[in-house]
Write a structure and sequence with these properties.
flat, ubiquitin protein ligase binding, six-stranded mixed sheet, Arrestin-like_C, Immunoglobulin-like, 449 residues
Length: 449
């Protein structure tokens, strides 16, 4: 969604009286072109009764993009724009259109919160022009087609869209966010305007595969300790995921202690404590509008912001298995990690606009050195030395896929070698109908006793 521009249809928003207590559906009512905003007494004038109302009915499942942005085939999005004409009324629509708009917002704008062009940048993804398409924004239109006359009742206008698979998912971060919405606009020949907005949530789900588990090897110099870690490549905001570690190189060999005072003993590293945490790193580039471009060095540039917070963590104080008798020693650790739902984490996002969210699993281990005599192997003596071993692994946080599949995998299979017409027969044998009657007489139901 590069070079996002502010959507021009937002100029049609009209301010309604906040004290009227109207419902959200009633907010999409018409506004008379000649209505005044105040009277002699200073109170707001009562708005006229709307001749029609707009509403949107979504017929497709929730918009979920399956797979990574590089491999996703998108999602089908369909619905109906409904124009409900009031009783004993008839309207003539000169323009009726619907648009799907994507908006990137920042909480740290270059020009401050008072500059709407620095706070949000919008881009129109798809437009449906049901009637006319000219004159909605108040410009000088070209010759428009004849208006559409609608009588009392409910009138539907279907729409559909294949949401591209590379779009970033809906996100609400601490320094930025991405949102999508449908904007419906209509204007009657009498100058009355109808407007409606409805948010659309776009989610991304990467289906985890057992063969995609990550197997990583970490080395902790200057010691000989190595750790083999197995963890899933994809995690979810709700639910646990397992992590397995096999730590080796925690016991010294006899040859390495021949020239030391402890040549009749062996040293080893004992695991004392293990902590883990999930870090969420959010990075966003706040673009500058034309008025504030000088603050960042010119047009087309922005200011980068970064925020790191912990969305999950715990401490493991026991439960591992230590074996110092075989080879160079081995410690096996297995624990469950999870995202804290109270932190309201954001799924991974990589937007061309500069809004990026990533996650990493950080593991810290505290190991203490001790030596044990060969004569008393069950009585280790601490040496006083300890080390903190730290490592991290990048993980992908996405929504669960559930039972859904991509739209292109729902179609029935096609066969290239099967012709469209029925098969032909080279030989045809004539059959006497009388013979068939005799065969049919043999087939009968058993008589009841």
């Amino acid at each position: 969604m590069d070079h996002l521009r502010r959507h021009s249809l937002t100029r049609l928003h009209h301010h309604s009286d906040r004290k009227s207590g109207t419902s959200p559906k009633a907010s999409a009512t018409s506004v008379a072109s000649g209505a005044s905003s105040g009277g002699a007494s200073g109170r707001a004038a009562t708005p006229p009764t709307a001749p029609a109302e707009l509403s949107i009915v979504i017929e497709s499942p929730p918009v979920v993009l399956y797979g990574s942005p590089r491999h996703s085939t998108g999602a089908l999005f369909a619905g109906q724009l409904v124009v409900d004409v009031a009783r004993d009324a008839e309207i003539a629509l000169g323009a009726l259109e619907l648009a799907m708009v994507g908006t990137v917002t920042t909480r740290r704008p270059v020009g401050g919160a008072h500059c709407p062009d620095c706070v949000a940048q919008s881009k129109e993804l798809k437009r449906w022009e049901f009637v006319g398409g000219e004159g909605v924004e108040g410009g000088a239109p070209a010759p428009a087609p004849a208006p559409l006359r609608l009588a009392q009742g409910r009138h539907t206008f279907p729409f559909s869209y294949l949401v591209p698979g590379h779009l970033p998912a809906t996100s609400a971060g601490h320094i930025g966010g991405i949102a999508y919405k449908l904007e419906a606009r209509a204007r009657t020949t009498g100058g009355e305007a109808l407007a409606l907005e409805r948010p659309v949530k776009v989610a991304r789900a990467i289906i985890p595969m057992p063969e995609n588990e990550r197997h990583s090897l970490r080395i902790f110099p200057p010691t000989a300790i190595t750790a083999q870690v197995t963890l899933p490549a994809v995690i979810h905001p709700i639910g646990d995921f397992g992590v397995e570690m096999a730590i080796s190189g925690v016991a010294s060999t006899a040859t390495s202690l021949q020239n030391t005072p402890q040549r009749d003993a062996s040293t080893r590293w004992r695991l004392r404590k293990l902590t883990w945490r999930l870090d969420e790193r959010e990075r966003h580039v706040s673009p500058a509008c034309a008025r504030h471009a000088a603050k960042v060095g010119g047009a087309g540039k922005g200011m980068q912001h970064e925020d790191v917070r912990t969305v999950g963590g715990d401490e493991v104080k026991g439960g591992w298995k230590s074996d110092f008798a075989t080879g160079d020693g081995r410690i096996e650790v297995a624990f469950s990690a999870r995202v804290n739902p109270a932190k309201k984490s954001v799924c991974d996002v990589d937007s061309p606009t500069g809004f990026v969210v990533t996650h990493a699993l950080v593991i810290e281990m505290v190991v203490a050195e001790e030596w044990v005599s060969k004569k008393r192997p069950n009585s280790p003596t601490p040496t006083g030395a300890a080390r903190v071993l730290r490592t991290q692994f990048n993980v992908t946080l996405t929504e669960r896929s559930g039972l859904g599949i991509a739209w292109d995998e729902e179609q029935p299979p096609t066969y290239e070698d099967v012709p469209a017409s029925p098969p032909t027969y080279n030989q045809v044998r004539d059959v006497d109908l009388a013979e068939l009657d005799e065969e049919a007489e043999r087939l009968h139901l058993a008589e009841e006793s």
